[in-house]
Backbone:
């Protein structure tokens, strides 16, 4: 999937639709008739999530790998590969409201902004992704 170049492995991401412009009739050279046309060229792009606003806190998953600067694989649910170091098995992890894409332990979860549970540590290196409901703490 397409992702912004600053997205990193282990980051919590949301998907955003990027519209690159209107679709023109010349894009369909074999089309013989059109009943209605209202379309745009668009791409779904993974972006680092951040718990400081409703728009940027809609986490859909964790980046597990990047094959290039702008292509990444996103885990939506379940056990991640070994992406992290030193996770605490007794803690839930939440989206940071300070650093884009970062997950933080429960006691470091945002006191203001949007609270988003990302998952629970399965080991010191992997997380079970189970994204919770967003709670607005504004």
Residues:
């Amino acid at each position: 999937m397409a992702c912004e170049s600053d997205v990193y492995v282990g980051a919590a991401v949301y998907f955003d639709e990027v519209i690159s412009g209107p679709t023109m009739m010349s894009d369909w050279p074999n089309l013989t008739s059109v009943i209605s046309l209202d379309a745009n060229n668009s791409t779904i792009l993974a972006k680092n999530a951040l718990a400081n606003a409703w728009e940027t806190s809609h986490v859909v998953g964790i980046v597990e790998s990047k094959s290039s600067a702008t292509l990444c694989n996103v885990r939506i649910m379940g056990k991640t590969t070994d992406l992290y170091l030193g996770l605490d098995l007794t803690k839930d992890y939440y989206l940071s409201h300070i650093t884009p894409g970062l997950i933080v332990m429960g006691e470091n979860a945002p006191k203001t902004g949007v609270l988003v549970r990302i998952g629970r540590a399965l080991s010191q290196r992997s997380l079970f992704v189970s994204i919770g409901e967003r709670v607005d703490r504004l």
User: Anything to note?
Assistant: The chain has a mean pLDDT of 88. The first strand starts at residue 2 and ends at 3. Residues 60 and 102 are 14 Å apart (CA to CA).
